[in-house]
């Protein structure tokens, strides 16, 4: 609404300049590869690593972005992002330290994911939609026919599998690990099916994986159980397992959808319950890491100081190395005091860095704004710390380390 108002009052050039000087400048690295490199150099000087993200956000059911051309364009952007991620490495050579975010709905339509989710939830669909069958189709490029989909949907599925395969193949060749984002509950089962299919092919022990990670949202009631089952299944299958653990970014929409459809709210009843869920998932994953070593990787993707404290304490107790299979993730422009403290203590810390033109990142920025309503507690603390530091610099007093 604010954007629409400012465009009307100030015109698109002035309102664009205003956004660039404010939210865009705060949360986005820039538009060009050179601007991204500049931003990453600053972060690297502070001991932080980049986690690039192409912010392609499709509103579910959006009519505008349909047709294979839009997804093919996104595929090219993803492949360029892999190259950029690889090129940002300080010292060249093979390494498993380069991570990048991948949004599956940039490569396949939310409509297809919705349809697949409906079928996955039905009993008896499991065999036809097994990860192994999809993995086989991805690898061989052979025609895949799924009986629950019509001809057009089958064609789109085939094209989507091809795009996913190409991104991971390229990322694997460039030694870039892909962290697949979690989205809405009416899409997530389909996204997880696709991740599982990619994992069958790319997370096998011989590959030195995990190259494809999934994201688990602790604000959902069933997440701990799903995470436990997935970790055990990967262990049984001898596959490497990679997890980005988040609280979840779509709270308002999840609740609104449940209200609208008259279904049960899938989210935790309150913030405290989400915190307890995050803590349990974190404990589960750290235990797995301590048992499986480099076959199990975890990103503690949170700005929450309590969660970060729990992770570092348990890593020490379990003997997990500081810069090993566990790393930390925060968003660019948010909670730098948490990232810097972790980085300076020797932990592997990634800043999630979206980049792109103002138009491309607007939906991402709107989501950040919505999210920041619930993260205001952390923002207030950050504001206090920034004022303290400003006073210190202006008055020339000694350094106070936050604790
Ligand atoms: C590197 C990185 C990658 C990310 N990738 C994803 C992703 O793929 N998918 C995704 O969904 N999100 C993703 N996020 C965003 C993340 O889910 C959170 O929205 C964000 O990090 C804020 O949570 P927090 O743990 O940092 O902080 P906190 O401020 O402690 O927690 C805020 C979060 O608590 C939860 N919450 C707040 N109020 C309530 C309530 N009343 N009831 C129940 N729960 C509540 C919400 O999840 C809210 O976002 C990512 C974040 C990072 C840092």
UniProtKB/TrEMBL annotation:
It is an enzyme of class 1 (oxidoreductase). One of its GO terms (biological process) is L-proline catabolic process to L-glutamate. Keywords: FAD, Flavoprotein, Oxidoreductase, Proline metabolism. Gene3D superfamilies: 3.20.20.220. Its EC number is 1.5.5.2. SUPFAM superfamilies: FAD-linked oxidoreductase (SSF51730). GO terms for cellular component: mitochondrion. It comes from the Eukaryota. Residues 110-376 form the Proline dehydrogenase domain. One of its GO terms (molecular function) is FAD binding. InterPro entries: FAD-linked_oxidoreductase-like, Proline_DH_dom, Proline_oxidase. Converts proline to delta-1-pyrroline-5-carboxylate. This is Proline dehydrogenase. It comes from Panthera pardus.
């Amino acid at each position: 609404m604010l954007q629409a108002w400012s465009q009307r009052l100030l015109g698109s050039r002035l309102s664009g300049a205003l956004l660039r000087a404010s939210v865009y400048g705060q949360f986005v690295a820039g538009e060009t590869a050179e601007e991204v490199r500049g931003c990453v150099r600053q972060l690297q000087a502070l001991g932080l690593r980049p986690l690039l993200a192409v912010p392609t956000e499709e509103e579910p059911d959006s009519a505008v972005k349909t047709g294979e051309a839009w997804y093919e364009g996104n595929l090219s952007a993803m492949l360029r992002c892999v190259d950029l991620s690889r090129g940002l490495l300080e010292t060249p050579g093979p390494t498993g330290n380069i991570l990048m975010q991948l949004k599956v709905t940039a490569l396949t339509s939310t409509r297809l994911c919705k349809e697949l989710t409906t079928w996955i939830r039905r009993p008896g669909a499991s065999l036809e939609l097994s990860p192994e069958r999809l993995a086989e189709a991805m690898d061989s490029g052979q025609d895949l026919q799924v009986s629950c989909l019509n001809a057009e949907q089958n064609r789109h599925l085939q094209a989507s599998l091809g795009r996913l395969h190409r991104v991971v193949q390229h990322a694997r060749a460039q030694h870039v690990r892909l962290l697949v984002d979690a989205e809405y509950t009416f899409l997530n089962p389909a996204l997880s099916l696709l991740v599982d299919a990619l994992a069958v092919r790319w997370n096998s022990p011989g590959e030195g994986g995990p190259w494809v990670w999934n994201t688990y949202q602790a604000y959902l009631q069933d997440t701990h159980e799903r995470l436990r089952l997935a970790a055990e299944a990967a262990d049984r299958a001898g596959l490497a397992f990679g997890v980005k653990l988040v609280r979840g970014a779509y709270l308002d929409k999840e609740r609104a959808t449940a209200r609208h459809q008259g279904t049960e709210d899938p989210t935790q009843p309150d913030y405290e319950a989400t915190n307890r869920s995050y803590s349990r998932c974190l404990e589960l994953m750290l235990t797995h890491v301590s048992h499986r070593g480099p076959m199990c990787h975890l990103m503690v993707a949170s700005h929450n100081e309590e969660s970060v404290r729990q992770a570092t304490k348990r890593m020490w107790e379990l003997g997990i190395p500081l810069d090993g299979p566990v790393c930390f993730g925060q968003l660019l422009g948010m909670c730098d005091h948490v990232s810097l403290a972790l980085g300076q203590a020797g932990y592997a810390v990634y800043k999630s860095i979206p980049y792109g033109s103002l138009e491309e990142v607007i939906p991402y920025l709107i989501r950040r704004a919505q999210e920041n309503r619930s993260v205001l507690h952390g923002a207030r603390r950050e504001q206090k710390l920034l004022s303290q530091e400003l006073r210190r610099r202006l008055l020339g007093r000694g350094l106070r380390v936050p604790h």
